[in-house]
Amino acid sequence: MRSLSKVTEYPSVEQCIGGAADFSDTQPWIYTLDNPYLHGVYAPTSNQLDVSGLRVEGQLPADLEGAYFRNGPNPLLEPKNRYHPFDGDGMVHGVYFRDGQVAYRNRYVNTLALQDEHAAGRSVSPGVMGPFDYSLSQFGIKDTSNTDIFFYNGDLMSLWYNAGHPYRMDAADLSTKGYYDLEGRSQRRLSAHSKVDLATGELLFFDYGDTPPYMTYGVADANGKLLHEVAIDLPGPRLPHDIGFTTHYTILHDLPFFHDMEVLNRHGYRVLTFHKDIPTRFGLIPRHGAGSEVRWFECEPCYILHTSNCWEEGDWVIMDGCRSTNPMPDAQPGEGELASMLAYMRLEANNYRWRFNLRTGEVREGDIDDLNTEFNKTNPLYHGRKSRYAYHQRIPLHHEGGFTLRFTGLVKYDNDTGKRWQWDYGPGVFGSEAVFAPRRGATALSAEDDGYVITLVTDSNTWESRCLVFDATDIEAGPVARVVMPHRVPFGFHATWARGEDLFAAR
């Protein structure tokens, strides 16, 4: 097998041990494994820090108040089997902006699975690449809570991509409080990309599984009390990743990229197939509607990881997001037993718009742009209402050097015109999902891009990390401020912004 760590620009195991870069904060067992998602920018950190008074390069905006939180995989113990980045234990990084000062802290999401493994001193989960072992948990693998993070009902909710158990974290010190239970709900599973509507404070959620009902959809109020939950009729197990919402509707996803249950039951492996002959379906359900009220709209076969925003225009419901027509790229020669995982992580997607007519049933869909981008965010004050702007991460394709998933630049889109503005992070510098931070005191009546775009980057030339703050109206001017992080911040998945008026008022 070819040494995978050497096909990227990241250092080899030998370079990590003997080179100038300081990787003393990582887990020592990574040096025994040749997996690119355990080295370089992906190497886990063993640090859990609390640092205030961070140094700022440039001018920090006076009306920037709140916190940037980012979740991601940070494995504590050597994996039992082959490692997939979805297997890494969740770690949340928080960058806090208040009164012209910046503080940072990071903590593991202290899941029950992590506690058990830490007590045992070894990893027991077989991992995403299997074989799944349902004697360990209802998921067959470890619920790592490493995917999404958002602020809801005074705390952070940490979630897992596979519809796991949500965890509640204190937004101030990032301590884990335990499961995030919704009052009145009989079970806990929640998909990673449930949504908070800032206009009402409601949580719009869904979950899914391998047994009927294959999906449920529900709504909780701003105080964490269940208001509504219904079963959604699907033809079989699916792996939906996101939803969208408007003022009156929630948009559910039935996507033709799913696993073979016979293979899973017989052999314990989740084998995903993209069924190009099956349409993608989007189900519009009134926010508090019954399962029988879902209206399904058929579209071209595709897979969707993340929506940007949705809204209503007369008889039409519009959804912007990123669309993939090749969710399982071909494995590359010479990549050995990790070839399928590496192919799956090479994300191919582009900015796209769907339109659904509630009166006639008509569907209109098409590209906004063809650039390979994903991990798309918009102004949260505009969620559910008409918006134009979205902020994406540029992702190099395999032939462009995209051997592993990495973000090489920030892209701002005007989704009405397709115009884009870009900021390149620089050679060997890799970013995180960027969030939109409204100016302090902004409302849904403020200009849509009246605020800031914030991301974390790590420079593989120096292994230093920065938190970048952009004026959202002009990202091509570059960051107005760079906050120097106290240690290397590993690659992660999703981020969120908690407004100062919500975060600090509750303290």
Automatic annotation (TrEMBL):
Signal peptide: none annotated. InterPro entries: Carotenoid_Oase. Transmembrane segments: none annotated. GO terms for molecular function: carotenoid dioxygenase activity; metal ion binding. Fe cation binds at residues 193, 241, 306, 494. Binds 1 Fe(2+) ion per subunit. Its cofactor is Fe(2+). GO terms for biological process: carotene catabolic process. Keywords: Dioxygenase, Iron, Metal-binding, Oxidoreductase. Pfam families: RPE65. It comes from the Bacteria. Belongs to the carotenoid oxygenase family. This is Dioxygenase. It comes from Kineobactrum sediminis.
